Amino acid sequence: MNVTLRGRVRQILNDMVAAGYANTKSEAIRFAILNFGEHVSEEAMVSERLSRINKDIKEGKRKLLNSKEALGTYAKYTK
Q: Who is most buried in 17, 18, 51, 73, counting CB within 10 A?
């Protein structure tokens, strides 16, 4: 995977390597991802996602389906 970083993000990455927090830029990125994972729980991410989905439904950007609509042509097999 190739990632292009610019501006402040690139500078922070370079500073992490220069300061010795990481030996390479790839290692610095891995550390940052792990740090994010330690500070943001899976429960918090799921909760945020569900909140966005509920907001989209209220704003009409998503349609809430009943079970029959969701199953479509397969609804006949649930009887």
A: 17
